[in-house]
Amino acid sequence: MKKLTTSVLLVVLSSSFAVVKAQSGDTIRTQKIEEVVVTGALGIKKKADAVTNAQQVVGAKELNQASATNAVQSLTGKVSGLVINQTNSSVDSNYRIVLRGNRSVTSNNQALVVIDNVISSSNILAQLPPESIENVNVIKGMQGSALYGQQGANGVIIVTTKKGTKNEKIQFNLTSSVEIQQAFMFPKIQTRYGKGVQDQSFSNVDYGGTNYVPWENTSWGPAYDNPAIGGTMVASGLPQADGSYIYEKYAPVKDHFSKFFKKGIVFQNGLTVNAGGNDSYAFLSLNRLDNEFVVDGDNLKQNSILLKAGKKFGNLRVDARFNYISRIIDQTNSGLYDDLLQLPSSNDVRKYRNSGIDGYATMYSTNPYWTIEHERSKAVKDYLNGTLSLQYDFSKHINLTYTGSITMGSTNYNNYNDGYFSTTPYQNTGTPYLEGHLLDEINPNSQVTAYYFNHKYTNRDYYGDLMLNFDYDLTDNLNLKFNLGNNIQDYYNTASSIGGTGLLVPGWYDFRNVVNSVLPQDTATQLDGYTMDNYLIRSRIIAGFANLDLAWKDYLFFNGTFRIEKSSVLSTNYNNENHNKAYPYYSAGLSFIPTKAFPGFGGNVLNYMKIAPSFTRVGNTSAVAAYATYDRGVIPTGYPFNSLQSYLYNTQPTSRDIKPEFMNTIDLNLQMGFLNDRITLEASAYKTVTNDLITFSNVSSTSGLFRIQDNIGKTELKGYEIELGLTPIKTSSVVWNLRGSISQFKSKVLELAPGIDEVVLNSPFTSPGIGTIYAIKGTDYPVIKGTTYVRDPNGNIVVDEDGTPLINSALSNLGKVTPDYVLNFNTSLKVKGFTLSASMDFRKGGHFISATKRQLGFTGGLQESASFDRTQGYVIPNSVQLVNGQYVPNSTPVGTADYSGVTNFFASGNFLNVGENNVVDATAFKIREISLSYDVPKSVLSSTFVNSLTFGVYARNPFFKYADNNANYADPETANTTGNGAGIALTGQYPSVKTYGFNVKVTF
């Protein structure tokens, strides 16, 4: 990693010298920094000079260079300070989008997404085809997002979709791409020992008395070079339906995990139509995406329609937008990857494709091919948005605008499992251990409960902005722009779930076919991963806002914003009165351009400089659920309430006096351009202090309450970003651009309520010592806590007289989750009609808990469990014993000095449940995109109806490099949540996927 970082820096430095030499060949004019006009909050447009906060615009060319299937994917690695984590690799992936780190402990820390001036969501952004987007403005500075109030507390991603041109000639654009997906970065496992278990009751005399067992799921068997069995053909797995065995060579199969995954294929086709005139335009985008995923049977079909049109009628301007997205998703339970991870390296899983459960390679896990066929989730998702924008010009100085939007969505999930009950007898099969038994008597995986559940979710959202706009030159040198407006948001969400266990008629997935109904208040988490959601929620936000821009000449700018806002989630009712306080949010920022204020400033080298300080105060209430401040009953579950209709008093209420978390941010931005912007430098430093932190705290048991949600703490976020842009070569035939950045942020808990030192953010394991995500007072967060071994003053593990390591009873801080810093690097080289582009990033530091590593410890697949002779036992490396008050080197194997001692250690809680064994370094280098395209010369197309034609090849995620102690256990981005508790990668999350493709773009 150090060599890689050094190489990147050398390229940047050498390129900067090349810039100076290339000046004489500069024949291409690039738009200057100050000439760029960007769309900010509420659609207010400004020149870059007047922008008082940090932001970065990503254009259509960058978004589409590698034919990404969604806009979130295409943004990854392209913006400093923007960290996008793909938390799972599936046909319907999830993302976590964070700008400049965490400001809150329990409230939402993800960036706000605004599409065409209407608040949307990251889920919708992940469904937008990049080809329909004109640009994305990532507002990193809080001052630029303060007009959105509490919803803009974490920065804003403003997406502007394309619209028609003024050309009256209709223009058609066709895009088509086909790509191959391949799963990669599979866990590295030991290949010294194979299938079996060190237990004589399982021994099979047919294999020379070795500990090989055909139906085992662990790799505690004999060595592959054992002369009694190594390299021979052995019976493997459970007997097949006819009583015969599948035979495999007792030798490691190369990359055996990868055998299960197929080559996925993705087709994406799009058509856009542009038309317009001097006072009107029309734009239509049609897109079809077909994704046949790397897991057999998993697929996604998506249709997207975007229609935009506008026309001016005298003083009235009318713009309309219609967007419809339909998605059909069919996928199996990703928990099958856990079953696959248990497979010893001698097994080729493909040989068991048709073996079902009874004849699988092991009796201790479910055949993943059976899971694919019999346990599935099928979802139909529809998204519909209609937006109307009106602008009436009273004069050239005053106009009134209105943007109103209605969004409707529905999701219909059907989850089912066909179930299975084995009746296979093992009489006379030649399997001593199974003789006289049914499979279901000894293998719990042979009894699978059938179930069917249906979940329906709907939403109806209204968003409206009414804004009066003023633009006056107060003097020859002073310009005033003022916006005064009102915002109303109304969200209406419903959910209903039905279902149960047992199916009367196999294959009929309908509630009428369910044997045992699940009550609405019960949970179905253990069956299909979904709770029995049944609710109706309505919430509202009403706000007034004002925006002031002052410009002195062309070098000094001021921006001030104010928003006063009421949110229904903070309303409560007591003493027969409704209480809902309005809260103010405000910001102020300056932009000063010394290169324009002082003629000759910077000489012939520094052509542009901007200094922009700002202050922002906003709030965040996303941790407070709707109706939380009201007195509510809770429907009880468990004995004796299973069949009773009752309720209990809510023992986890929210304080009636709860208020927003207030975030005060100081931001300083610097922007410079050298040698006519051939070299650009942008730097930002910021600090956010969050007061009145919202979280739960325990209360006295005498109150009858368990805990209460209230304002109880304080956090601090500090960070910086530095971005360097270079154009080493810029001629009529060759243009080479480079952009590199470094960003760093640290979030720290400063205060919590009296008696509270930490807050649990994520605890998915039965034993918290395995790994739990916390926010701890006085430290950076989020952090991992888990159990550790007792160590001497020199850091050596202390063992007892049996060689077993001693374990500390208290949990210890095992490291923070977030990276120490992030390096981004992007480049594009255009040589005549050819364009080569690449995007990559390097995230240094951070940690995560890998359940895969823990699983491999149990199965004997860990490399460290086979780095010695297992028959001699295992001595903890560099361990010590306490003898007569002195620590002395230890030479005693764990437990016993034989194979059983090794197995009993690695497959027991002495190893598996010790958190420090499960912690992995999250450092990673990733090449995100590489693309090569060719634009056919205009001269070749001049005699045809084609205006432009481009061919391209590309790769996404072609190369990853993880830290040395991460033997590909999991992608560090992977997490079992998109919330604040990220940092735990479970075994049900697939490995990463890389893509190679070809595309063509035609305009006529």
List keywords for this structure.
1004 residues, mainly beta, 22-stranded antiparallel barrel, 5-stranded mixed sheet, 14 helices, 46% strand, disordered N terminus, TonB-dep_rcpt-like, Plug_dom, transport
Task: Please render the helix and strand layout as text.
Layout: H1 2-22, E1 37-39, E2 45-47, E3 55-59, H2 60-64, H3 71-75, E4 82-86, E5 95-99, E6 112-115, E7 118-119, H4 122-125, E8 133-139, E9 156-161, E10 171-183, E11 233-236, E12 246-249, E13 264-276, E14 280-292, E15 299-313, E16 316-332, H5 336-341, H6 368-374, E17 375-393, E18 398-417, E19 420-421, H7 439-442, E20 447-448, E21 451-473, E22 478-503, E23 514-517, E24 523-524, H8 525-528, E25 530-531, E26 535-552, E27 556-567, E28 572-574, E29 577-579, E30 583-592, H9 594-597, E31 606-620, E32 633-634, E33 648-649, E34 661-674, E35 679-698, E36 707-730, E37 734-751, E38 758-762, E39 772-776, E40 783-786, E41 798-799, E42 812-816, E43 821-831, E44 834-844, E45 847-850, H10 851-859, E46 880-883, E47 886-889, H11 899-906, H12 909-912, H13 915-918, E48 919-921, E49 924-935, H14 938-941, E50 948-962, E51 984-985, E52 993-1003
Parallel strand pairs: 6-9, 41-46, 45-51
Antiparallel strand pairs: 1-2, 3-8, 4-5, 6-7, 8-9, 10-13, 10-52, 11-12, 13-14, 14-15, 15-16, 16-17, 17-18, 18-21, 19-20, 21-22, 22-23, 22-26, 24-25, 26-27, 27-30, 28-29, 30-31, 31-34, 32-33, 34-35, 35-36, 36-37, 37-43, 38-39, 39-40, 40-42, 43-44, 44-49, 45-48, 46-47, 49-50, 50-52
